[in-house]
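Re: [ENG-882] Designed sequences occasionally contain unexpected residues at chain ends

Forwarding the minimal case from QA. Structure tokens:
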């Protein structure tokens, strides 16, 4: 049942992202000034536009493109596969070790010993 819910969730997210991309691209084509204003306003909310190296003209052409949509959908699919469900196997999520190498959570399992993950923040 949990997998079915996850797939339905992915279909909903995919449909929403496709619609958002189509509307965004139409807005860029039909009303470029309004699109720029809205995207910059969104960028200020997430501090993206406060980066001194941020150049609107470099970034915007990729925002509502097919490659952007593919990347976002790929990321959404991976995140969906990383969801944990009560009573099911833990997801083998990609993590970065202390030396900066990419590995998976289950790479740290040694023998039959349980693996304890502690999540927290140092800030």
């Amino acid at each position: 049942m949990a997998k079915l819910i996850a797939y339905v969730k992915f279909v909903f997210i995919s449909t929403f992202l496709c619609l958002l991309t189509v509307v965004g691209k139409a807005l860029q084509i039909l009303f470029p000034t309004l699109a720029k204003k809205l995207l910059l306003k969104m960028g200020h909310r997430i501090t993206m536009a406060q980066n001194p190296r941020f150049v609107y003209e470099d970034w915007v052409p990729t925002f509502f493109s097919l490659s952007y949509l593919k990347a976002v959908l790929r990321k959404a699919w991976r995140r969906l596969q990383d969801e944990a469900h009560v009573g099911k196997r833990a997801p083998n999520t990609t993590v970065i070790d202390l030396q900066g190498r990419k590995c998976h959570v289950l790479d740290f399992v040694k023998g039959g010993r349980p693996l304890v993950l502690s999540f927290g923040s140092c800030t």
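QA comment: On inspection the terminal residues look reasonable. The two ends are 37 Å apart (CA to CA). Proposing we downgrade this to a documentation issue.
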